[in-house]
Write a structure and sequence with these properties.
- The protein is about 20% helix and about 40% strand.
- With about 160 residues, it is α+β, with helices and mostly antiparallel strands.
- It has one domain (about 5-160).
- It has a 5-stranded antiparallel sheet. It has a 4-stranded antiparallel sheet with strand order 1-2-3-4. Strands 7-8 form a two-stranded antiparallel sheet.
- A hairpin with a 2-residue loop joins strand 1 (about 5-10) and strand 2.
């Protein structure tokens, strides 16, 4: 049986499903995300080992994982497919999508909330197995500040 948690953040309902070992070959949290192909809901998983690694960095990184990642997956300003940069790829598989957005908050290393970083966007990378393997702040495009810098050459296509 899966444990389900529902909470509201910035007017967005965030459903977190904790997968049982029997339900998944990878143990972790299952987050709902928008499927750019049809606008329906799809599932994206974050592994417990990844969450633990992030939490060891700082409380701010842990809060980004808990609050910002689900928000970007559910309400992206854009979704791109076809990663062209090696540093964007998942070392364990093939990167598939990059969800992009500007969250309402950023988090300092001590976990306190602050304004979003100026001229930056938040990216969440999801591999072909539906696993979020990386997320981070990056420079925004000078002409369209809701998109990442060099998005036209960095990704093969925009799907949302």
């Amino acid at each position: 049986m899966c444990m389900r948690l529902l909470f509201v953040l910035d007017g967005c309902f965030i459903l977190v499903v904790m997968a049982d070992k029997e339900d998944s070959r990878r143990t972790g949290l299952i987050l709902h995300a928008v499927n750019p192909s049809d606008g329906a809901v799809c599932e994206v998983q974050v592994s417990f080992s990844r969450m633990q690694a992030v939490a060891r960095r700082s409380l701010g990184h842990a809060k980004e994982c808990g609050y910002i990642v689900p928000m970007i997956l559910q309400r992206p300003t854009a979704v791109f497919e076809g990663l062209r940069r090696d540093e964007d790829e998942d070392p364990r598989g093939v990167g598939r999508r990059c969800y992009c957005g500007i969250p309402e908050f950023s988090y300092r290393p001590d976990g306190t909330a602050g304004r979003p970083y100026p001229k930056q966007v938040y990216l969440v990378f999801v591999n072909d197995e539906g696993v979020a393997y990386n997320w981070r702040w990056e420079k925004a495009d000078a002409e369209d500040p809701k998109l990442p810098e060099n998005h036209l050459t960095r990704f093969r296509r925009r799907v949302l």
